[in-house]
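Possible regression after last week's pipeline update?

I re-ran a chain I had predicted before the update to compare outputs. Posting the input and the new output here so someone can diff against the archived version. Not blocking, just want to make sure nothing changed silently.
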Amino acid sequence: MRLFTILPENFFSILASKNKDIYAEALLVLYHSLQTDELAIKKSDFIRTLRDKYRDIILALDVSEEEENSEEDSDDFKSEDLPAKAALVVRRLEECGWIDVEIDSNTFEEYLALPSYTILFLTLLDELTSEDSGEYISLVHATYTELKSEDEERDEFLYATLIRAYESTRKLKTELVTLGHSIRIFQNRLGRVFSTNSILADYFDQYKSRVSDRYYHPLKTFDSVAKFKRPIIAILQNWLRDEEVRSQLVMQSLMWTRNINRVEAEKDIIAKINYICDMYDTLDEMIEQIDNKHQEYTKASASKILYLNNSDKTVKGHLDNIFKHYAEMAQNDENMRPLISGIREAINMSHQGYITPDSVGLPILRKYKVEGSALEIYDFEDISEMLMEGFLDGTRNTFTDKRIFEFMELAFANEHELQIEDIPLPDFDAFILLILASIKTSDEKCFYEIESHEGHTINYGYRLPKLTFIRKELEA
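New output (post-update):
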């Protein structure tokens, strides 16, 4: 089915207009109203909320823009006051198919009715704009728990449990693909960042909180695929081999679907079980690729921080700075003329010679100009990448796991807990070791855990997140 057989033709027009920021806020208000009054959203209450809480935003509405895009002629377009503009926003939402207006036949009160596709889009907008990263939803452990419980009971919900396991497996694959692409996005963005603070903000404020802690860490610890995949596959394969279970699944499938015969139902059940088993067999390879990307991004971030903080005053260092600023300006599509002019003014080229007593009387020698080949113009971006790769290759093995854990052992001394502000950072190498130590908690050799707190702290001039390092208890 085509998209615009479901959605109105001008559905996205309000988000592409000059007033798109105003409509985006109005849609978020509509979403929160939906959470409060799920089945009865009064039009007058919605307009009053826009008018009272978002006065400055609504007053900024460009009425002329909406008059051009609207199919109707109304007095709302001719008024610049707040109530009229708030009503105009609601009118445009109705024209573009985001809402319908329903009139109560008893009270003649107007209520907003939201199509199903509008609720889906409102939920997506709220997730995109929400600062809360949300809690991790266990998919692997939940699948194993439901299958194990149903395998013991084998009641009338056997087929429903299989369907939930199938949908959870599909969602798990989507989550892993999303995780892999998210890491690649941050890794690609690293090449366009040219300041230490920006790299730290991307890693700790964005990547670690929204990607690593939310998806990557659970999949490597309590919701591990490697831990639960064998029991899941074993239960499903037993169901396939057990004629009684297969017959029970087929009967329940016919009751649930009501539109397929016994042979088609059995084929569908076998296909779903095989999909789950095959998917769990291939997930290890996908997770290994994600592990490699995660490690590459972590090492590249640390190496680039080290590179940006090493100020080389030699000619090579000055050339590195020139190439770095050139790459930054090229990335932002800035005018290169000031940079090239500055290079010409800073570099003075001269030709040295000398005069002898015979210089005045020497005969004139006529020479013919010989056509030569043009000098090759080098790509500064390639040179910048070559210098970066050479530097990263030289520093890749500097900070090993052994050195990181020795640094933390020295910081802990004999203490059980350690605050991040108590860790000495006498030089920049210690700062890099601290960054790497904070992301090593999922390593099997790591002897400590980390608790995160709100806020930041200052240590040796560095602005750091509030963390508490706790030594793990030794197992008896």
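Follow-up from reviewer: compared with the archived run. The mean pLDDT is 79. Marking as no regression found.
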